[in-house]
Design a protein that fits this description.
about 325 residues; mainly beta; 5 helices; 18 strands; about 45% strand; globular
């Protein structure tokens, strides 16, 4: 089987699962919460990627497209939402559907997926996917892992790919990625539309006033560095914290865990509501926006500005 066989089946699968429901009144503006009920989810036109892991496991990556119009870049856009889970067993339930046993989280803040299934109207496509998963389960590739859906254009310059929980991007969408090349490292600056307090939501209004007069802007700007095969975070490393947190400011230097397409594109995850970052995904139970900035369809501006130049254009006074 060729390495790209599954990638050629773009948008050919149906993905379904059951998950505890979010409290939608809190979801959009205030503190994140959970309802005491479960909800079924089903998405058509999904693509599937498989990464082999140790101990008989595989990471299954699901993507689906969303589209709309961006006033920021003044054009229509298309980008992917991504969700991943770790499969410990795959079960052919019929010629047209696979069921999964998945690794459960020990963190009580997470709401793991249940009754996870991938289906296809074409049984040959499903057979191909089943074979791919079985071949890769328990056979991890060399680290750091390369994530490559196979259908994005190539870009030869260093540019990170950013994953942000879609629930956070509702009001805090990523606007810009700037890469400032130094002699022996690159300083990356991310610009977010806004920043919402989640855990301390009662102080959100006061915090906005403070930010406006302290930084003379309303957007949230975060920076980190790429030093060879490592990330360096001065005060915005998330550690293991998740989106429910909003006051995480850790310092760290960590190995890059994933690349997108090739080593020019290290993968970075937004993990907390104050946009603390890390090399891994702490919010596996949330769909995440996939920002491939060099794609003409993705509504993110990118360039080679310094942090100071980037901040200057957003200062109000």
């Amino acid at each position: 089987m060729s390495q790209n066989s599954i990638r050629e089946l773009k948008l050919n699968f149906q993905f379904s699962y059951i998950q505890q429901a979010y409290d939608e009144l809190k979801e959009h503006k205030r503190r994140l919460g959970w309802k005491n009920e479960e909800r079924s989810h089903q998405y058509d036109n999904c693509s599937v990627d498989v990464i082999g892991l140790d101990e008989g496991r595989a990471r299954i990556i699901i993507r689906r497209e969303i589209s709309g119009h961006s006033t920021f870049v003044d054009s229509d856009f298309t980008l992917n939402l991504m969700m991943g889970f770790i499969a410990t067993k795959v079960i052919p339930e019929s010629e047209y559907q696979l069921g999964f046993e998945i690794q459960q989280s020990r963190d009580l803040e997470h709401r793991d997926l249940k009754n996870v299934r991938i289906a296809s109207k074409n049984k040959d496509d499903l057979t191909l996917l089943f074979s791919e998963i079985e071949q890769k389960m328990g056979k991890p590739i060399e680290t750091p892992k390369i994530i490559d859906p196979g259908y994005f254009e190539k870009y030869s310059e260093l540019m990170p790919v950013v994953y942000q929980p879609a629930i956070d991007a509702w009001k805090n969408i990523l606007r810009e990625i700037q890469v400032d090349k130094k002699n022996d490292y690159c300083k990356i600056t991310l610009v977010f539309e806004d920043e919402n307090l989640r855990k301390h939501f009662v102080f959100d209004f006061i915090y906005r006033i403070f930010r406006y007069f302290r930084y003379r802007r309303t957007v949230d700007i975060e920076s980190f560095e790429v030093r060879g095969e490592e990330f360096y975070f001065e005060d915005n490393y998330s550690g293991k914290h998740i989106l429910f947190e909003d006051n995480i400011h850790l310092k760290a230097q960590v190995p890059i865990k994933y690349y997108f397409q090739d080593s020019n594109h290290p993968v970075i995850f937004v993990n907390t509501s104050n946009h603390a970052l890390a090399e891994g995904d702490n919010n596996h139970d949330f769909w995440k926006r996939e920002y491939v900035a060099w794609s003409e369809k993705v509504p993110v501006k990118f360039g080679n500005k310094s942090r100071r130049e980037t901040e200057k254009q957003y200062k109000r006074f």
